[in-house]
Amino acid sequence: MPTLRRTLLATTAALGLLAAALPALAQKTVKVEGAWARPTVQGQGGGGGFLKITGGAQADRLLSGSTSASNTVELHTMTMEGDVMRMRQVPGIDVPAGGTVELKPGGLHLMFMGLKQPLKAGETFPLTLRFEKAGEVKVDVKVSSQPPAGAAAGHGGHGGHKH
Ligand SMILES: [Cu+2]
Q1: What is the pLDDT of residues 52-65, one digit of tens each?
Q2: 31-143: what CATH class?
């Protein structure tokens, strides 16, 4: 009888930063644009949030966020493991100097954990992001089932979340 040896495939979560290091117009600090979140249904504990960050004159790092809409805001990455999309919390998201980082469906995103009420399409809610160097940046997050015009578009749903 042949011996079956089971190989454990250890998958490393590479922080896949899709950061295009294109030179941007000189700006002192980070810029956050096109923040949006998917609508959620009653009983859904977390919602995904997406936005685009453009780096300033020096590299920065997104450390955390907070909002009145949920108990906490987590930074997540999404990777494929076989056929399964898995999300992981990451401690920070690097923003290269002059580069852009897009948080979009299927990749890096914000996760609004412990929603106080479902996010409804058409509403907006305030979000405060905290950067290592730029400090606090406040933006409004638009709730929409589609990326707003000009926002980072992605493919693949963010629906099947299991937290
Ligand atoms: Cu997530």
Answers
A1: 999 999 999 999 99
A2: mainly beta
